[in-house]
Fold:
Amino acid sequence: MSYDGKVVLGESVDKLLLQSQINGFGELVKANWKEYGEFFNGIEERLQNSIYDWSSKFFEEWELTKINWPIGIEEDDNGKNFVSSDECHDNYFEFKFVNHESPVGFFLKFKDLSLEVGLEAFDLLKFEELIFEIRVAYMNESTNFDQVAHRAKLSEFIEFLKKNFDYFKALLQDCVKQTELKVKEYNHTVEKMTENLYAAIDSLKALEKQELINMFFMACREKVEFEMPRQMRVSTKAKVIAKSVSVERVHANRRFVDVEVEELDLSEQVSYTKRLYKRVFIRTMFGFDLTDDETLKLIGNDL
Structure:
């Protein structure tokens, strides 16, 4: 069965609605990703604002201006997203603080491999593992580093980080937890959409099967004229483009039929020719089997 989005004249409204739902699945997933993508893309900005709101209450002259956050979102073999720590192994978590009252800035750096060993993010991180890279702008012979560091209250800020390290680490962990929750939410959302997709496909298949069953029984009574010529298989190796079909005989085993098909003939010029095909498998031509229990339930008392 092909779901290529083409509208076929004469199709039922239910069938077209199901087809539209199936064809629109990709766009639905893409549109749904927008909210989650914005969250994942903004996670560093979210963390930056959280740390700044916390630290600025004590040191308004310091500002967190940049974050390197080597935790990302990846997709596994089953198409599910998960929080990945692959980049944590070779890259530092890095936080750039600047002081607008003095030409001093520093980078707070560390590595964390907690996720790699199956622990909660930053569970293994200790304050002693933090690396501070101090940078002073426009430093020359007359610049006294101690005076600049004192004026920038650098030691006080580091002491503040030391005393509040658990809170700082909790902000980092909360960022990862919120990311994990969002990933699980997205996976659940996609799973529900996928369930709806498969349900629509199953419904469309059932509807098409019921249409073929109805067409078969109508063809047993009279010639069925197609509004638009359709392709029908008369054997495992042969297909015809049929304008009409009628069942001339149902064999006793209920597996074969003799059918008369008004088919497209391209031998000389475009025309339709009636041909009788004997012992055609019902399943091959109509897609169901009169001996199948599931089909018999659909047919009901019509047989």
Remarks:
- The two ends are 26 Å apart (CA to CA).
- The helical segments are 13-23, 25-41, 43-55, 145-151, 154-163, 165-221, 282-286, 293-299.
